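explain this:
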Amino acid sequence: MHTTIEPGILYFGTPVVLISTVNEDGGFNLAPMSSAFWLGWRCMLGLAAGSKTPQNMRRTGECVLNLPSVDLVAAVDRLAQTTGSDPVPAMKQRKGYRHLSDKFAAAGLTATASETVAAPRVAECAVQLEARIESVHGIADDDAILRGHIQCFEVRVQRVHVDEAILMDGTRDRIDPDKWRPLIMSFQQFYGLGARLHESRLGTIPEAAYRTPDVERARKAAMRTEVAAG
């Protein structure tokens, strides 16, 4: 039996992403979010336009997408209701947010240098994706009240770092979904994945069949960075 409801949010469950960026003063910002989805080596990120992270992304054109596993849930939660913006935007003030300048220290996480972008990686995250911002799209711009408040960032991954512990045995470029346990946010609560339920027919398609030109672009970008570094 179904019924018609009007929930305030529709966050049915997506992986948590810790986005690291560089502030105007050269310091680092770290923000948890979960409005993300992936296509090839591209990711779409939904963010409040006035927050510090999207401001940094628009200014620098880059970021790192760090994916925490379930064991980092406490660290991620320590960043809840914090913002790198000073003063705190009125909308976030109403939701109980407070300004925090050193989010890495507050979360107990470690910033480590990236290879192709200035934004740092989170050392403790099993997956770290260095990325460039390719385009920014307005969300709900048809609504006079919401116009300009939400943006969707299309980012292109150009370097993938993973903990060897989550690689599929006998391979170099495949993540084992039975080893990787991402932190999931569903209706403002943290969850993890359970055991595999059923073999997927899509799993019979080689992952290489989905490779896009972005992979080769990433290789060339990394080579240019290595040459520039001497």
Q: What stands out?
A: Residues 14-228 form a domain with the Pnp Oxidase; Chain A fold (CATH 2.30.110.10).
